[in-house]
Amino acid sequence: MPEITTTVYADAALPEALRPLLAAWEKTCFTPNEYTWSRVQWRVIVWDGGTPVSHTGVVARRCMLDGQPLPLAGLSTVMTPPEYRRRGYASAAIARAGEFMQEALRAPFGLLVTGPDRVPLYARHGWQQVDDPLLVAMPDGSKRRMTAVVMILPLAGCPWPGGTIDLCGLPW
Ligand SMILES: CC(C)(COP(=O)(O)OP(=O)(O)OC[C@H]1O[C@@H](n2cnc3c(N)ncnc32)[C@H](O)[C@@H]1OP(=O)(O)O)[C@@H](O)C(=O)NCCC(=O)NCCS
User: Fold this and answer.
1) pTM of the full structure
2) Ligand 1 mean position to 131 CA, how many Å?
3) Which among 38, 87, 109, 139 is most buried, taking Cβ atoms within 10 Å?
């Protein structure tokens, strides 16, 4: 039975052979919408044996919560191509990304945006849905309130304080 493993790459250090594969997965897995998305800084790749089967992006950003600076770690671009779904691969990527946010980034909280149907997937890994307003930048520099589900991962043992979240840049 092939072994499931995960690797975290800084985006600049991603093996070049993976870039076209990830670009193809993105086309298959996501529909373009009104947002321009932030570039990811790290990439978690899940391997089944030697085959890449799932991806999660991670970003780190100084954001604002109710006008006060707050560093956040972001989970982004969670995707498994259709032929590999429902085998726990995305779950492996989400779990590894959470560890990376805690141990390497030392962020107090992770943040992701998603749709209502994906909430159980993230909740199984400790992510909590919150109702706080989320402000994101549009390409023209204006700010907009995003209406997606916002989920937070407490990483330092403190409860989420709540408040208006400003990502201070493009969404992830
Ligand atoms: C969402 C997505 C990343 C999930 O990827 P995945 O690798 O299938 O995820 P997992 O296998 O870890 O979990 C998916 C489901 O399969 C179930 N599952 C996991 N292992 C399983 C197994 N061995 N047998 C049967 N089901 C299994 C999980 O319990 C989960 O159930 P849920 O949908 O009720 O929550 C994938 O469907 C995708 O790329 N979708 C399009 C892009 C997208 O929406 N990304 C998320 C943006 S927020």
Assistant:
1) 0.96
2) 24
3) 109
